[in-house]
Write a structure and sequence with these properties.
3 helices; alpha+beta; 60s Ribosomal Protein L30, Chain: A; 5 strands
Length: 126
């Protein structure tokens, strides 16, 4: 079993919502502070391309329907605060969603904590 991506689908019968959970490990840790700290545009493009390649290698789906999304980041060392995870959220969102307009991404929730490895759990409710 590929432990780098786990996909679970289930239905909450109480309010008829479906939930999909996607787990990514090994994505580069990039803080919003680092993103805007005068990094050359070519370095930011390289980060984005790295994310796209790593995510596409593990997740072939494309979300084409309105959803609420929760990103649960875990960091083995020096967890980032939630708002500094936003650069990573944006790079992930640009790959897994057809479009990132409010029509497709209704809400975003970001959590961050210390964990046993660097990973992100993405909980998509639709």
């Amino acid at each position: 079993m590929d432990r780098s991506k786990i996909r679970i689908e289930m239905t909450n019968l109480r309010n008829n919502e479906s939930v999909e959970i996607i787990v990514f490990t090994g994505l580069p840790k990039i803080s919003l502070n680092e993103w805007y700290a005068g990094k050359h545009w070519s370095e930011r493009v390289e980060w984005k391309n790295t994310y796209k390649l790593m995510i596409r290698n593990k997740y072939k789906g494309l979300i084409t329907f309105p959803a609420d999304v929760e990103y649960q980041f875990e960091f083995k060392n020096n967890p980032l605060d939630c708002s500094n995870c936003v650069a990573m959220v944006k790079m992930i969102e640009d790959v897994i969603f057809e479009k990132d307009s409010p029509k497709f991404v209704r809400s975003v929730k970001v959590r961050s904590k210390k964990g046993t490895q660097d990973k992100v759990n993405i909980i998509i409710t639709y």
